[in-house]
Structures are given as C-alpha cells and as structure tokens.
Design a protein that fits this description.
Blueprint: E1 4-10, H1 16-19, E2 24-26, E3 30-34, E4 42-46, E5 52-58, E6 63-69, H2 78-93, E7 103-108, E8 117-122, E9 125-130, H3 133-137, H4 139-149, E10 155-158, E11 171-174, E12 181-185, E13 188-192, H5 207-215, E14 221-225, H6 231-238, E15 243-248, H7 251-263, E16 273-275, H8 278-282, E17 291-294, H9 306-323, E18 328-334, H10 341-355, E19 359-365, E20 384-390
Parallel strand pairs: 1-4, 9-10, 14-15, 14-17, 15-16, 17-18
Antiparallel strand pairs: 1-3, 2-6, 4-5, 5-6, 7-8, 8-9, 10-11, 12-13, 18-20, 19-20
Helix pairs in contact: 2-4, 5-6, 9-10
This protein binds S-adenosyl-L-homocysteine (SAH).
Length: 391
C-alpha cells in the first residue's frame, strides 16, 4: 500500500488543468493543506469542494505536486509496474525495439505518466534517473517493476547524483553492468558508459534523426559538431561518407567517439575527432564540408536565459551557413525546452538573412516514439530540428 501523508486543497478554478490530466500542481494553485508531508511523500489532491482529483508526489517548490494518478481512489504500488508495462508495450508496438536496435527510452517522465522519472535501456542494462524526491523514495519499487516487466534486463543502475538537490549516490540496484557496454542502434554499434558519461550515457533521442542523416551521407564530407560520443559520425561512416570530422569540447567524449568509430571498423586517423570549441573550430573551415550537424547542449535551461540562448543559436547557425559548400545540407537542432519550434525556426531564418545565401527547409525534425509527449503536457516537447539545403 501507498501511505498518503496529506490532502492538498486547490483554489477555486485551479482544478481545470488537473481535470485535463496535466500532472503539475503549482504552489500558487494551493489553497490549504491537511497534514504535514515530507518532500517525496505521496499526497492526495482535492478541489475547492473537497472532491478528489488525484494522487502524486509532494515536493516543496514551484511544482509542489507531480501527479501519477488522476483517479479518486488511492493507488497501490502496482501503479509502477502497470505504467512501466504499458510504456514497454508502446515501445514494442511502435517497433522502437526490434532486431536492429537494442537500446531505447523506457520511461520518458510525464509522457509515460511518471513525472520525475527517466529510464533508458541499453542492451539489457536499465539506467534510471530520478528528478523528484518521490521517484527517489520509490526507486526500489520501480527497479522491481522494471525487472518484472522486462525480464531481459539483468542490471539496473541508479544515477541521480546531482539531479535531486540532495545527496544521492549512484549505485546498482540490480546486477552489475560492465562499462563501456556495446549497444546496437539501427545496426550501428556504440560503446555506452553510463557511469562516467553525460546524462544516462547516450542521447537516444536523436536515433531517428541519425538514421535520416545516414540516408544523406553517402560519398560526402561531414562535420559533426557537439558530437558527444559520435552518434551522427558513426551513422555517416556506416552509410558511406567519404570523410567525417567530429568535434566536442569534452575530452572524454572525443575519446569515446574515436573508440566508436573504430568499433564500427573505421580508422579514427582518417576520420579525426577534435577536442575543441565548435565556435572556434568552424571559423576557418570554408568550403570543406557537404554536410554539417549542429547539435549543441541546451543553451537555455530557463526562460531568463532565452534571449542569450537565441543569440547563441543564431551565431552558430550563421557560421555553418557561411562555411558549408554549395548544395550542402545542415542538420540543426535545439534541445532547449524553453525554446519552442516557432522561436527556433525564426532564429534560423534570421541567421539565414544575416548570411544572405539561398536556403531551403527540407524537413522538420523532432523527438522519437520512445520520447512521447502527453498531449495534455506540451512542456514535454523539447527536441526540434531542421534539415536545411544551402545553395
Ligand atoms: N549529438 C550528440 C549529442 C550532443 S550533446 C549525440 O548524438 O550523441 C552536446 C555535446 O556538446 C556534449 O557532448 C558537450 O560536451 C558538447 N559541447 C558543449 N559545448 C560545446 C562547445 N562549445 N563546443 C563543442 N562541444 C561542446
């Protein structure tokens, strides 16, 4: 059973978004509280007339409750295995997991009805990350649910150091994975190191965009900036690119890119990786590349940083538009949640205007089926990209 530690009553009118299944209760929506919940405990949320709206994790802050249930009866702990089972079924039905791919995002927070939880699966190893104290408290139950629903998972690594605002040790909750570990994504091979790597170890969200890039890479010279562990570089090489240069400001990432290039049977001497700042690297590289990938980290994590971030995207894209060969292709991305599609598009337009070359938009890109967005929680959409053709 789940212990419900308090009842939270909303102000009149503030129940509307909850009734539309939006999972966040903001502090400003709360009228009063019965009980004294600790951060991470389960609470019941009620409207101004005391009708139950749902149940979720309490945590003092702007988002005070993250709802996991919109029922009027308290859930039991099987809520985790039910939701994880449903999430896995969706990945199987949408063919994200198949004979060519053994890595996928199993749980994408709100998009899977589990706000505050991320789970990525890498060829038998699940890497779990909590972004709320409620998920942190329930981590053993969640690990049990993963084991129950995905019997091929032999190890579960819990990686929430630095994501919670409290001290949480990274540790194995099941088994003992050995890093780096080889995964297969659309038949491309990668080493993943969830212990030392960024986030959960690999950026699964670019899978379908990498596949598309592969389709445009045969015989061309490619520059993959912000390459991390070389995701786009490996796809380009396996698809027959004549030359691939990879750039990242992290030495560890560059090392793993080299290893990944070699893992796929290519010579990292012929396809060098540079430990450099993209903005510096790109300056004097005019007319050297047919295809350029721009996949920077989120330049804006908060709304206050948005203006500065837009300047960063504009400068970066303008540089690439200046140096790319005629008839070249740019894959450009933003993973800042606070920069929406329209704003990103407008920024790319202003970079194009600044550079003055003829440019066409070939495709709009987004996040794949294992990074679902609840239609009631549009905030879950973060990755957007454009394929540009530069004449
Ligand atoms: N495209 C990658 C993911 C990119 S994540 C993939 O498919 O896996 C963003 C990367 O940008 C990180 O590896 C980070 O180290 C790198 N980075 C951040 N600032 C940078 C800069 N100014 N120049 C080059 N790389 C940078």
């Amino acid at each position: 059973m789940i212990k419900i530690s308090a009842s939270i009553f909303l102000k009149r009118g503030r129940e509307a978004s909850v009734k539309r299944n939006h999972p966040w209760i903001f502090s400003g929506a709360i009228q009063s509280m019965e009980g004294k919940p600790e951060d991470g405990e389960w609470v019941e949320v009620k409207d101004f007339q005391h009708a139950t709206l749902g149940f979720g994790h309490y945590q003092k802050g702007t988002i005070t409750v993250r709802l996991l249930s919109f029922e009027n009866k308290a859930p039991n702990l099987s809520i985790y295995s039910n939701k994880i089972g449903a999430a896995y079924e969706q990945r199987v039905l949408t063919r994200v997991v198949n004979e060519h791919t053994n890595c996928f995002r199993l749980v994408h927070g709100e998009g899977d009805g589990l706000p505050g939880l991320i789970v990525d699966v890498y060829n038998g190893v699940a890497v779990m990350q909590a972004h709320s104290l409620g998920m942190h408290n329930d981590r053993q139950t969640i690990a049990g649910a993963i084991q129950e629903k995905l019997n091929f998972v032999h190890s579960i690594y819990y990686k929430s150091h630095g994501t919670l605002g409290i001290k949480a040790e990274n540790e194995y909750l099941l088994g003992m994975g050995v890093v780096p570990h080889v995964i297969t994504e659309h038949n491309n091979k990668f080493y993943v190191d969830w212990e030392e790597g960024q986030k959960t170890g690999f950026f699964l969200d670019q899978r379908e965009n990498r596949k598309l890039l592969g389709q445009m890479s045969r015989g061309v010279s490619v520059l993959n900036t912000f390459c991390y562990t070389g995701g786009f570089s490996v796809y380009a090489l396996n698809a027959g690119a004549s030359r691939v240069h990879s750039v990242d400001a992290s030495e560890k990432a560059v090392e793993l890119t080299k290893k990944n290039i070699e893992l796929n049977g290519f010579d990292a001497g012929q396809h060098p990786c540079f430990d450099a700042d993209t903005f510096d690297f790109i300056k004097d590289k005019k007319n050297q590349y047919d295809l350029i990938i721009l996949d920077p980290p989120a330049f804006a994590k908060h709304k206050d940083a948005r203006h500065q971030a837009m300047k960063g995207y504009q400068r970066l894209n303008a540089e690439a538009m200046k140096i790319i060969k005629p008839n070249g292709i740019i894959f450009t991305f933003s993973c800042s949640q606070v920069v929406d599609q329209q704003l990103f598009y407008d920024t790319i337009v202003s970079a194009a205007v600044q550079v003055g070359r003829e440019i066409k938009v070939l495709q709009h890109l987004g996040q794949p089926a294992d990074h679902p967005v609840s239609i009631y929680h549009p905030e879950g959409e973060y990755l957007k990209g454009l394929v540009l053709y530069v004449l």
